[in-house]
Amino acid sequence: MVARVFIDGEAGTTGLQIRDRLASRSDIELLSIAEDRRKDLKARADLLNAADVAILCLPDEAARESVSLIENATTRVIDASSAYRVAEGWAYGFAEMDGSQAATIAEAKRVSNPGCWPQGVIACLRPLISGGLLPADFPVTVNGVSGYSGGGKGMIADYESQGPAANMFAPYALGFNHKHLPEMTAYTGLAAAPLFAPAVGNYYKGMLTAVPLRLDRLTEVPTGAQLHAAIADHFAGQRNGFVEVAPLGAIERSDDLNPQALNGTNRLRLHVFANDARAQALLIAIYDNLGKGASGAAVQNLNLMLGVDQTKSLAA
Ligand SMILES: NC(=O)C1=CN([C@@H]2O[C@H](COP(=O)(O)OP(=O)(O)OC[C@H]3O[C@@H](n4cnc5c(N)ncnc54)[C@H](OP(=O)(O)O)[C@@H]3O)[C@@H](O)[C@H]2O)C=CC1
Ligand SMILES: CC(=O)N[C@@H](CCC(=O)OP(=O)(O)O)C(=O)O
């Protein structure tokens, strides 16, 4: 069967990348909107209702509008915005998050694609909190750097107009109220929001999240080997998953800790570093903010929903 897919927001950064990934697929018919009617409610409503799956690559408010325009019971939705990440009735589209999440996504009518930042943080912390190595009320700080494409067309234009003169490393969200905090908190299993201090680098795409841990606060201090084993075990059972765990403390190539190392792929790689004598550890995740952080994850979720037994190449 050929599935009809409409990408609402197909001219944006995420939408274009999804289009590129689906263009050569013979099992998918892409429904496209005329350039001059991209924001026309009637034209969007017609295509949203004609689609088997609608992928929303829009600002939050426009994504909510698209959902409200769907009048039939058959159109399934993948929303790339942050409108529905912790909403009732929506499956969170991080397939490797738990053993059962891929099946939940496969059955869902409404899937919310994760934000780019939370996936790395959830991948690092969820196994440790659910495995009892860290308590839910552990005081967590998250740092990270993203390429400027994370800010969409507006930020891309801004950085590209400045070129090398643009800020190399610009911390932001300094009111500590970033829009990803609710999903980061909910799916890590933390009792309260972490202190999240992200930054944008002067490069196009690629992301690194870092969670430093002061373990000396705990009565039972896990070793680096125990932290690493809990994370590695958590992801060991993935079927066709894209999360990989580097050996404990391993930096095998100089490029391993480069935020751009997995650009152009749907992979997400985790690293654990530790000093047991000091009871300190650092958890790092590396991935492409436009790959596993957005378009790659959306295509992975689409494949699950369509029952495509995906190979690495289908999402990457
Ligand atoms: N970039 C990233 O790394 C990630 C982005 N996301 C999320 O995905 C969504 C899309 O982001 P991104 O692609 O970066 O954003 P862009 O700004 O690059 O693209 C958004 C697109 O939506 C279009 N649009 C805006 N309002 C409407 C409307 N009312 N009707 C129809 N089209 C509309 C815009 O039109 P126009 O071209 O005229 O501006 C634009 O083409 C956002 O919610 C974003 O937060 C999620 C994960 C990562
Ligand atoms: C560098 C940069 O600005 N990144 C964006 C996140 C991109 C993303 O994941 O967006 P959604 O949650 O809307 O899907 C930000 O921090 O707001």
Mean pLDDT: 95
Overall outline: globular
Label the structural class. alpha/beta
CATH fold group of the largest domain: Dihydrodipicolinate Reductase, domain 2
Largest sheet: 7 strands, mixed
GO molecular function, one term: N-acetyl-gamma-glutamyl-phosphate reductase activity
Main location: cytoplasm
Catalytic activity: N-acetyl-L-glutamate 5-semialdehyde + phosphate + NADP(+) = N-acetyl-L-glutamyl 5-phosphate + NADPH + H(+)
Pathway: Amino-acid biosynthesis; L-arginine biosynthesis; N(2)-acetyl-L-ornithine from L-glutamate: step 3/4
Give the SSE layout.
Layout (H helix, E strand, L loop, with lengths): L2 E6 L4 H10 L5 E4 L9 H10 L2 E4 L3 H10 L6 E4 L11 E2 L8 H7 L2 E3 L3 H15 L10 E6 L5 H11 L6 E3 L9 H8 L6 E7 L5 E8 L9 H13 L6 E3 L22 E8 L4 E8 L3 H16 L5 H4 L1
Parallel strand pairs: 1-2, 1-3, 3-4, 4-6, 5-6, 7-9, 11-12
Antiparallel strand pairs: 7-10, 8-9, 10-13, 12-13
Helix pairs in contact: 1-9, 4-9, 5-7, 5-8
Bound molecules: NADPH dihydro-nicotinamide-adenine-dinucleotide phosphate and N-acetyl-L-glutamyl 5-phosphate.
Task: Explain the overall architecture.
The protein is α/β, with parallel strands linked by helices and 316 residues long. The protein folds into two domains: 3-114 and 294-315, 3-Layer(aba) Sandwich (Rossmann fold), CATH 3.40.50.720; 116-290, Dihydrodipicolinate Reductase, domain 2 (2-Layer Sandwich). The protein contains ten helices and 13 strands. The protein has helices at residues 13-22, 41-50, 60-69, 101-107, 116-130, 152-162, 181-188, 224-236, 291-306, 312-315; strands spanning 3-8, 28-31, 53-56, 76-79, 91-92, 110-112, 141-146, 169-171, 195-201, 207-214, 243-245, 268-275, 280-287. The strands form two sheets. Strands 8-9-7-10-13-12-11 form a seven-stranded mixed β-sheet. β5 (91-92), α4 and β6 form a beta-alpha-beta unit. α5 runs parallel beside α7 (181-188) and α5 (116-130) crosses α8. The chain is globular. The relative contact order is 0.15. The mean pLDDT is 95. Bound molecules: NADPH dihydro-nicotinamide-adenine-dinucleotide phosphate (NDP) and N-acetyl-L-glutamyl 5-phosphate (X2W). N-acetyl-L-glutamyl 5-phosphate is lined by residues 80-82, 115-116, 146, 150-151, 155, 179-180, 198, 200.
